[in-house]
Design brief:
The chain is built from 6 helices and 6 strands; from the N terminus they run H-H-H-H-H-E-H-E-E-E-E-E. With 250 residues, it is of the alpha/beta class.
């Protein structure tokens, strides 16, 4: 790979980052929203480095120069990068031309569930009278397994997420994939669904129901599970890798 190609590749990677972070929301498939400024800054730096290298190469092309010293000794020039460096063009082109699909049911089915943090008893405030009560999947799980007041018992709740088949045992889960920092450290939170047949995998739904009795409510033996009363399809949120409150059904 000649220096001109190296410079072009550097600029291409920078352009891919800028395209993804500035003009689309695709970067949310890879990192958390708060890292957008870092991606933009990185893209700018790479494009500027490419421009500077191009200017320096153009200047060198008009000056007489000798081959590198090690070329005389070894018989070949080490100033060029190995051909395998062309593989770096693939992720850059994918950012510009084709974005890999978002993480979904396949990832969730092959990953362990996210451990829900323990919440002190005094951190469970009285639930509002709203019915159905909108909750995150994490919030529902905490109420089911940790709330000593058993406030979730018999309360209709509304949760949102995407469908993940439960595997050979049948049934399905309402699922969220959560980024701590980026896709590499993603974790999954799931609520078992009892009731209707499983919709197609990766379908986003708003689900209304009540806790499905399994184990002892308010303890770790209680399963995060829901007896479903109704479901509504919803559009996938732009920032799908958070455990936000339910979306308005479409």
């Amino acid at each position: 790979m000649r220096r001109l190609a190296q410079t072009a590749l550097l600029a291409l990677v920078g352009a891919g980052l800028l395209h993804t972070a500035l003009f689309t929301d695709l970067y949310l498939r890879y990192v958390k929203e708060g890292l957008r400024p870092v991606l933009i800054a990185s893209g700018v730096v790479l494009v500027l480095l490419g421009a500077v290298n191009a200017c320096l190469d153009l200047r060198r092309s008009h000056e007489p120069h000798d081959p590198p010293a090690d070329a005389h000794f070894h018989g070949h020039d080490h100033s060029t990068a190995p051909k395998v460096a062309w593989l770096l063009a693939l992720p850059a082109l994918s950012l510009l031309l084709y974005a890999p699909p978002a993480l979904g049911a396949y990832t969730a089915a092959h990953s362990n569930g996210k451990p829900v943090a323990t919440t002190p008893k005094e951190r469970f405030p009285a639930l509002p009278p709203t019915s159905p009560l909108p909750l995150t999947l994490t919030g529902f799980t905490q109420r089911v397994q940790q709330d000593p007041t058993l406030a979730i018992k018999g309360r209709p709740v509304q949760l949102t997420g995407f469908v993940t088949p439960a595997g050979s045992g049948g049934g399905w889960y309402l699922t969220r994939i959560i980024f701590t920092c980026c896709a590499a450290d993603s974790q999954t939170v799931k609520v078992r669904v009892h009731g209707p047949d499983a919709p197609p995998a990766n379908t986003w739904l708003a689900v209304t129901g009540t806790w499905h009795p399994a184990g002892r409510l308010g303890t770790k033996t209680a399963e995060a599970a829901l007896d479903v009363q109704e479901t509504h399809p919803i559009a996938q949120p732009v920032n799908a890798y958070t455990d936000d409150l339910p979306l308005t059904p479409s």
